[in-house]
Amino acid sequence: MKKISVKRVVMIAIFSALTTLLYIYVKFPLPIFPSFLDVNISMIPVIICAFVLGPIDASICVLIRFLLKLPLTSTAYVGELADLIMGLVTAIPCGLIYKTNLKHKSLIAFISVPIVWIAIGIITNIYINIPFYVDFYFNGDMTPLIGMCSDAFNLISFGHINNITVDNFMLYYVLLAVVPFNLMLSLIVVIVTAPIHRRLRIIYDKIGSLDKQNEI
User: Fold this and answer.
1) Could you give the number of structural domains in the chain?
2) Is 135 domain-assigned?
3) Contact assessment for residue 9 and residue 216, using Cβ atoms and an 8 Å cutoff
4) Looking at residues 85-91, what average pLDDT do you find?
5) Would you say residue 61 lies in a domain?
6) DSSP, residue by residue, 64-126
7) Fewer CB within 10 Å, N side or C side of the chain?
8) What span, in angstroms and rounded, lies between the C-alpha atoms of 176 and 179?
């Protein structure tokens, strides 16, 4: 059985702590989106971890973040579950791509972030987040949620959306909230992570195969 070096365990702990702190404490809404969509940059340490250590270690960070956040949940664990799925499905491709010998592998890995992020954001919102919020907070009545989102929809569409109903709400929500919000958030994460990644590439190469000394 392959042993895990002390250095790797320490680095996983550091990245886990960073992503958890950002996840819990650094978040804020934007007026152009529904108020329950918070800007959160906690994936930055996870993506760096995926580059430095690989997809398995980055996935461990996401799982630790998920477990540490559970006692503080305000969404009966559903929001955390959706973020867990988002984190895993974003981190794993990044780590796998960066471990290949592809030319421009960093660029390809960064390009994968918004693509995966938007796709998973659509899926989790349609099948997890919105059904939960409607049932948990509004007893299955989507009307209050439509009211919460109407102002944001009109703002982002420059007042062109006037007739939002239960039947068309999910379409408008995906097109006017989920897609632009996740595109913006993923690009913020990529833009912030890219220069950090460039500065740390020398360290990545040195870590490459972690020392076999001090193994546990």
Assistant:
1) 1
2) yes
3) yes
4) 95
5) yes
6) HHHHHHGGG-SSTTHHHHHHHHHHHHHHHHHHHHHTS--TTHHHHHHHHHHHHHHHHHHHHII
7) N
8) 7
**H or E segment to which residue 129 belongs:** none
Q: Is 1 domain-assigned?
A: no
- For residue 212, being part of any structural domain is answered with no
Provide Rg for the chain, Cα atoms.
19
pLDDT digits (tens, 9 = 90+) for 145-194: 998 888 888 877 766 777 888 889 999 999 999 999 999 999 999 999 99
In 3D space, the residue among 106, 107, 101, 5 whose CA is nearest the CA of residue 51 turns out to be 106
**Joined tokens for residue 192:** 């912030």
Res 14: pLDDT:
95
Q: CATH number of the domain at 176, please.
A: 1.10.1760.20
Contacting residues for 144 by C-beta, under 8 A, at least 6 apart: 137, 138
